[in-house]
Amino acid sequence: MPKNRNTFSFSASRAALTAWRRRTTTRAVHDGWRLIQQAGAVSAQRPGKLRFGSIGHGTKLAFPQGTVFGEPWIRLGDYCIIGENVTLTAGMMPDLDLGPDPILTLGNGVVLGRGSHVIADTTVTIGDDCYFGPYVYVTTTNHSYDDPDQPVGKQWPRMEPVEIGPGCWVGTNAVILPGARLGRNVVVAAGAVVRGDVPDHAVVAGAPARIVRRWEGEDGWQPPLRTPAPVPIPADVTPEQLVALAELDKEAS
Known about the structure:
Blueprint: H1 5-40, E1 54-55, E2 60-61, E3 68-69, E4 74-76, E5 81-82, E6 87-90, E7 104-106, E8 111-112, E9 117-120, E10 124-126, E11 131-132, E12 137-139, E13 141-142, E14 158-159, E15 162-164, E16 169-170, E17 175-176, E18 181-182, E19 187-188, E20 193-194, E21 197-198, E22 202-205, E23 210-215, E24 221-222, H2 239-252
């Protein structure tokens, strides 16, 4: 027997109302979360409860932050971008007196991707313009296992400083181990585990990481790059022209 038209119309209206409520609730949640993120972000002007040794102009820590302690011994340069859920720690635990000198130092223009960890039980120095992908792990401390009769976690750890030179790119899920010293403009492949010294202008990959490409002066990159060199933007091109070109690409596609 066919359904009554009024019943069908009522059901359709009710479904439409339910869908509208869900869309409205979703938009409200997203808008609310954006407001929370904006309010919870940390900067020099709005440090919240975090009292860093210094935090530079234009630097921002996205909300929510990861674990952060030992802030008086952490110095952040200008225009750094610290992603969500990034852990920054100085010292083995909170509320220690670590002396007069900084323990964790970030240069200017450093980017730390979402979920990264920088664990500085002793000194970590990250140079200017270093870019980290998400979930990079940098640590100065490793467990020791000398005594076969003691649980590894109960044995006193070993600590060595870490130094990452300016201009480095560290890929997703890379691990930088205690004692690592990376030179200038080093590329660390995703998932690499780095220890020891890495010279300037080198590409490292693997676990443990090894050099897979280097800049050899007059000979250029060896082995040679498999991709063509990027074409530089002409010096006389204005930002407005670049925006116009991007719009043309969108229309063409």
